[in-house]
Amino acid sequence: MDFMFKLGIVCILIASVSQSGLSEPFPPRFDTFPFPISLYEGCSNRTLATITARGRNGVITISANDDATRAKVDIVDARHTTTGGVDSTTVQIKQKACMDRETEPSWYLHLLAADKLKEHIETLLIFILDVNDERPSFTSNFYKVYVSENTSLSSEILRATATDPDNGMGGVVRYTLESAALYGNTFGIDAYSGSITVKTELDYSKLKFYEYLIVGTDEGGLGLKGNATLLIMIQPIATAMTPHNTIASDNFMFRYDSTSHVMVVILQHTCYVYIASDTESVDLHTSHGIHQLEIKLITMVYSTSATYVTLSHDELTALSKSTARFCNRVGWTSHKLN
User: Fold this and answer.
1) Does residue 166 contact residue 136 with C-beta atoms inside 8 Å?
2) So what's the pLDDT on residue 72?
3) Looking at residue 263, what is its pLDDT?
4) Which residue has the higher pLDDT, 20 or 166?
């Protein structure tokens, strides 16, 4: 019996493909990204950081990744190099917006590194340190107090309060009273609590009212000041109010335009415009002059016999552009005091 054998040869083809040809390209990376930075608040064009990104997919660009970052910084002085197949880009991050710790204690800068294939995002964190740049602010700009002439010595008639958002000693407020020599030391204030008390006997027949400037000074290096006006009305025993210490305070705000010599009193969505005389304009460079003019304007505003001329937008702009920008608001009115 004949047998036939068939020999089959199987060839196996082994294809070798380099790993680099199939691997996913890596995105660029920041290799000199700093740890959180601490900087003092303020306005500047200083360099906040120098950033480098590296990759293997061509030239790298570094940019801000969102509008908030673009509003705060500029990214400048890009330098590109290629060494051994590695692409590198270095940039400087320059401050553009003002840093204000009281409104935004930290900046989060979102930075994008991108080449022709991939991109990568990192966040640069900046802690903003405090500078003593805020003045003390009183809870009211004007206090009016009614006090009986038989009020006992050391009695508290008012406790003034001012706050300062600065950190440390810059946020600590000390209080003083300023007045004309006529009023002497009839009333005093505690430097730390703001408590105002009677120091000498009152006599309605001699003085019917007292005017003071309450000054709050912070204990930071600059000693920044804020103030409020205090008007103390003395009442005779026969008509003294009950209770004898009744506080009526209005939230007055004062703005002065030194260019046009316009002083404006703002009260309850109303601007009362006053044109300072040459003498008053000079006096406004002193705290006493400011105090005297503020009292004068408050008296004019409270006058029941006064009639005021209403100012249009154009009329107010002609007097003072800065005052017009502040007072020309929906629902607000402007009156001319003189």
Assistant:
1) no
2) 94
3) 87
4) 166
CB 90 within 8 A of CB 47: no
Say which amino acid occupies 205. Answer: S
What does the pLDDT read at residue 97? 93
Distance CA(249)–CA(134), nearest Å, equals 24
Provide the residue count of the chain: 338
- Mean pLDDT across 309-323: 87
What is the C-alpha to C-alpha distance for residues 58 and 62, in angstroms, rounded to an integer? 13
What number of other Cβ atoms are within 10 A of residue 161's Cβ?
A: 16
Whether the model clears a pTM of 0.85, i.e. scores above it, the answer is no
Q: Write the DSSP string, 58-72.
A: S--EEEE-SHHHHHH
What would the DSSP string read from start to end of 150-214? Answer: TPPTT-EEEE--EE---SGGGG-EEEEEE--GGGTTSEEE-TTT-EEEE-S---TTT-SEEEEEE
What are the contacts of 80-88 at 24+ separation with CB within 8 A? 85/56, 86/54, 86/55, 86/56, 87/28, 87/54, 87/55, 87/56, 87/57, 87/58, 87/59, 87/60, 87/115, 88/52, 88/53, 88/54, 88/60
For residues 215 and 173, give the distance between their C-alpha atoms in angstroms, rounded to a whole number: 9
Instruction: Please provide the DSSP assignment of 216-273 as one string.
Output: EEE-STT--EEEEEEEEEEE-GGG--SSS-EEEEE--EEEEETTTTEEEEEETTEEEE
How far apart, in whole angstroms, are the C-alpha atoms of residue 156 and residue 137?
21
Q: Measuring CA to CA, which residue among 96, 87, 108, 75 is closest to residue 31? A: 87
Q: What are the structure tokens assigned to 16, written together?
A: 């070798």
**pLDDT by residue (tens digit) across 271-299?**
899 999 988 888 877 767 777 788 888 88
pLDDT tens, residue by residue, 240-262? 443 333 334 456 777 778 788 88
